[in-house]
Automatic annotation (TrEMBL):
This is Autophagy protein 5. Coiled coil: none annotated. Residues 1-17 form the signal peptide. The keyword Signal applies. It is a peripheral membrane protein. GO terms for cellular component: Atg12-Atg5-Atg16 complex; autophagosome; mitochondria-associated endoplasmic reticulum membrane contact site; phagophore; phagophore assembly site membrane. Residues 106-151 form the Autophagy protein ATG5 UblB domain. InterPro entries: Atg5 (IPR007239), ATG5_HBR (IPR048940), Atg5_HR (IPR042526), ATG5_UblA (IPR048939), Atg5_UblA_dom_sf (IPR042527), ATG5_UblB (IPR048318). GO terms for molecular function: Atg8-family ligase activity. It comes from Equus asinus (Donkey).
Amino acid sequence: MHYPIGLLFDLLASSSALPWNITVHFKSFPEKDLLHCPSKDAIEAHFMSCVKEADALKHKSQVINEMQKKDHKQLWMGLQNDRFDQFWAINRKLMEYPAEENGFRYIPFRIYQTTTERPFIQKLFRPVAADGQLHTLGDLLKEVCPSALAPEDDSHHCENQLLY
């Protein structure tokens, strides 16, 4: 129920139709089935928490801590209002690869699972191997969830895990 909308779309959409019809109810919220979001401010706070978590992994929180409150607001408003230029003017700072520090410390990632008791996998993953080679997405998957990759002579693939 609480997977990100993009993940749900990837899991459920077909090429011919959207995966769901949305019905908005204004009474009798299903408190037992869903977490109630109290306000837009709560969504913004969750988004900023995720941004801060990712920056802590990538840059030791240096980038987000150097930003002003207006930068945080611009990042959020750009996302909320679908204004890429407004969003990217701030987000690009979070995506810059600090060459003088040999790049990002860790790569923030989360793999959502639909078949296990753990709803997602999240662990520290360095972008560069001990021998200096850059890791690929395949390297990450091999390390954190090898079951997602089928051996070359195997014809079945795991379709219950998505990386975001």
